[in-house]
Amino acid sequence: MTKIIAHRGASRYAPENTRSSFELAYQLNADGIETDVQLSKDGIPILFHDEKIKRTTRKKGYIHEYTYNELKKLDIGSWFGSQYIGETIMSLEEFLLWVIDKPLLLHLELKNNVFDYPRLEAITYNLVERYGLLDRTFFSTFSTRSIQRLNKISIDTNIGWLTSKSRHQLPLFSRALGANAIHIKYRLLQPKLVQQAKTENIPLRVYTVNKPKQILRCFQYKCDSIFTDVPDIAKTTYQTYL
What's 3-14+24-40+91-241's CATH class? Predict the structure, then answer.
């Protein structure tokens, strides 16, 4: 069965990467949650997508320019709606404590492709390991350096290479990088790639899939997972597919 992974939580209905978004995704019966990990100025892993903080906080600067305590004071909910005023940035540890007793898969995107955080992989991995969640955690990144660092930590790490670019024999190329899964932009989803992934026995996961026709196509191709802002629509679409 294709897994339905809530992209930054149920981010169509609640501010992305927040407790509210994660709670809603859980209530909508998503199979897992995808979120983004960066480091604060003082090396604390926090959940935030953009390198710049302006879009969701209306403040200036970059995540890595603020300490964890400074980031926790920012409102990241009011941009989305007045009912979310006061929503704050979550640390990775807060998220792991929230998810530990819930039957959810974890997809952690390491935001290492614009600014290089040399310690991001080790800090994130060690925290997930400390909470005993490695068996249901999948790491992903656009950065080849990040993939290399993860492999140095453990050869058993679940690593997905994120890509929006077509390439000859993408599954083989991904494996050569050190990844053991491919996370592709939806427009790359073609029968030839699906067959190559099956032949190489490498999971194919697709982002960001929100339209019912696109979701259905992923189910028909038996993709390993989809990342979606609308897990409820994905669940309903799956019922029509059965």
Answer: alpha beta
